[in-house]
């Protein structure tokens, strides 16, 4: 084979070097084996360059169907150089085979990585869309929670107002109960005074009756005195002149008896009036006493009702305090929920942004993997061409 037969081999090696440089530029960290092969190819190219520098070019000739390696340089033999080229050709054949296998494996792995990157990008896109939907749902939930929180605040204010009203009502009820107790005591005092007054009036009636009896006695005595005076006057008249003085005295006694009788009559009438008034007073006092007793009983019943009302108000106040405490707890829980939802919303937004960044990076990585796969495929093709060119040499 003449020297021009080396041109395809050198072109192939140059193409391989260009592709290796491209692959190294794209993903040098992922392919250490390719780097090793690239260094070996560079070593072979250096040998070719060294041979050209020495003015020697390898040629293959066939004599009697037996290949011999000859070095042509101004008509002189270069057996040492030929041996080096024979070793180089063997090394290049081995490298081209390994490079072809590695390129195929790299192409398969890169394609698998690209497929995985595409799937990851799709999943990340789905996650990103889901996070956007979640952010929207959280925003909707936030609006609802804000409404609930505002309602809870309003309910808290109303509960405080109701609790304050219950406290005021309880205070008023206790004051009313105290006043009712005071009224009961006062009614008791009035009832006692009425009873005492009734007793005094009754005693006055009894004394009036006693006075009436005395007046009756005085009236009876006056009647008897009048009768005695009349008898004395009769006897004085019988005595004649001797009885005139006695008759005058008897007449005066009769007049006094008549006046006493008249006075007793007036006293009796007054006593009768007093007794009637006393009886009326006693009846009125008895009625007043009965009314006081009924009023006292009514006040006691009202006081008892006030006691029941106070118990219920105290119970309501306790319930209102419990409701207020529960509303306070709910309000605190709502504040924590609002804070948690705010945090979730912030985290969801950050996760959404991160998923978008990851999606972009994954898409970029997928594009890089596709470029690597294309370069690996081209490298595999060139490796096959190199193998074909190397087989043209016989060592």
From TrEMBL:
It comes from the Bacteria. Residues 109-345 form the Methyl-accepting transducer domain. PROSITE patterns: CHEMOTAXIS_TRANSDUC_2. Keywords: Membrane, Transducer, Transmembrane, Transmembrane helix. The chain crosses the membrane at residues 7-28, 34-51. GO terms for cellular component: membrane. One of its GO terms (biological process) is signal transduction. Signal peptide: none annotated. The keyword Metal-binding does not apply. The keyword Methyltransferase does not apply. This is Methyl-accepting transducer domain-containing protein. It comes from Anaerovibrio slackiae.
């Amino acid at each position: 084979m003449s020297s021009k037969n080396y041109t395809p081999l050198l072109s192939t090696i140059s193409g391989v070097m260009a592709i290796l440089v491209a692959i190294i530029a794209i993903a040098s960290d992922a392919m250490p084996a390719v780097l090793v092969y690239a260094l070996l190819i560079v070593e072979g190219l250096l040998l070719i360059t060294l041979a050209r520098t020495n003015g020697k070019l390898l040629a293959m000739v066939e004599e009697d169907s037996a290949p011999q390696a000859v070095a042509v340089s101004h008509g002189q033999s270069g057996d040492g150089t030929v041996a080096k080229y024979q070793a180089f050709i063997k090394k290049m054949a081995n490298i081209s085979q390994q490079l072809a296998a590695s390129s195929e494996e790299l192409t398969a792995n890169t394609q698998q990585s690209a497929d995985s990157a595409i799937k990851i990008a799709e999943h990340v896109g789905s996650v990103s869309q889901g996070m956007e939907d979640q952010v929207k749902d959280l925003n909707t939930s936030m609006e609802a929670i804000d409404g609930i929180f505002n309602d809870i605040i309003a309910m808290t204010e109303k509960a405080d107002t109701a609790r304050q009203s219950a406290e005021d009502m309880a205070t008023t009820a206790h004051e009313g109960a105290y006043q009712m107790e005071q009224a009961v005591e006062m009614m008791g005092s009035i009832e006692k005074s009425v009873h005492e007054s009734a007793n005094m009036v009754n005693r006055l009636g009894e004394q009036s009756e006693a006075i009436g009896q005395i007046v009756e006695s005085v009236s009876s005595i006056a009647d008897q005195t009048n009768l005695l005076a009349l008898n004395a006057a009769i006897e004085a008249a019988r005595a004649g002149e001797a009885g005139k003085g006695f008759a005058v005295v008897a007449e005066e006694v009769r007049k006094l008896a008549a006046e006493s009788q008249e006075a007793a009559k007036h006293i009796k009438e007054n006593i009768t009036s007093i007794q009637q008034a006393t009886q009326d007073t006693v009846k009125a006092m008895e009625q007043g006493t009965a009314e006081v007793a009924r009023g006292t009983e009514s006040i006691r019943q009202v006081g008892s009702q006030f006691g029941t009302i106070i118990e219920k108000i105290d119970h309501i106040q306790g319930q209102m305090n419990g409701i207020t405490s529960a509303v306070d707890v709910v309000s605190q829980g709502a504040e924590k929920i609002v804070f948690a939802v705010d945090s979730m919303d912030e985290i969801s937004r950050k996760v959404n942004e991160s998923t978008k960044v990851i999606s972009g990076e994954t898409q970029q990585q997928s594009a890089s993997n596709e470029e690597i796969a294309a370069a690996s495929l081209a490298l595999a093709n060139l490796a096959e061409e190199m193998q074909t060119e190397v087989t043209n040499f016989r060592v």
